[in-house]
Design goal:
With about 300 residues, the chain is α/β, with parallel strands linked by helices. Helices cover about 25% and strands about 25% of the residues. It is globular, with a radius of gyration of 20 Å.
Length: about 300
Amino acid sequence: MARIPAEENGAEKFPKQTPFNLGDLVTDRTKILTDAERVQLEEQNKRMVTDFQAQKLEREARKHWDLFYKRNETRFFKDRHWTTREFTELLSARCPAVVGDAPLETDGQPPNTTKTLLEIGCGVGNLIFPLIEEGHRNFFIYACDLSPRAVELVRKHNLYDDRYMSAFACDITTDEVFGTLTEHSLDIATLIFVLSAIHPDKFRVTLSNIYRLMKPGGVVLFRDYGRYDMAQLRFKPGHKIADNFYMRQDGTRSYYFAEDEVSALFRDVGFEVLVNSYIHRRTINPKENIDVPRIFVQGKFRKPD
């Protein structure tokens, strides 16, 4: 694993992502807050989520995500067409068995698949279905989500085909996933805006479960909310559960990660860090007059051979 020499503070540095969009800032340095932003964060501490409320949110996490998908169905999240650009591990040569929209069969069998992929926290399939649309069908795709309603929406999608994919509901923080998948069975797992929705006390067990699922040499593709992202700064008093962990209005939750924290979490359960960094990016929509600075942590983590 290549490493960048440590700075004077002794912190270990890892290779960074390459910028993918014009204007991206890729760095291992946490955002420096302005005085006004420090005041915003201090205001959040004036009224915290109570312990009783926090425990109730944890018990009812599945219910809140089920209600989210009942309200929004497939309308909330955009398809993630960016993933093959920023995670080239998802790319495959266009499958020769693909003609039009339907895979051809050979002697009644589906096209050969050479890799296994698990999308953790699949929602309504905003990552896996763009992959299929673009012809990347040399994976057998597994997709899981805490919400049974989300999984039902995935199975109803017109591109869902159980010859080369399997969607199932499970809580990745428990052993439920091993009822469907065996240890050492995955080449690639995606963890995109998922770990942040889990209680910090369960980060380690979640990553340990993923580590058990990966084949030697398997890679986890990660993106999540970064420390002091705009969304974190905008929370009002009454939404903060713990340091960097918040309750949204709909009862779902979100954690905001530091870059070195993510590296440490993965390394502690056995992964190697391939790349990991903050990505500062502006979300721009001229039609809606939106220009918002965002901060993500993005990385790739490999199970040693």
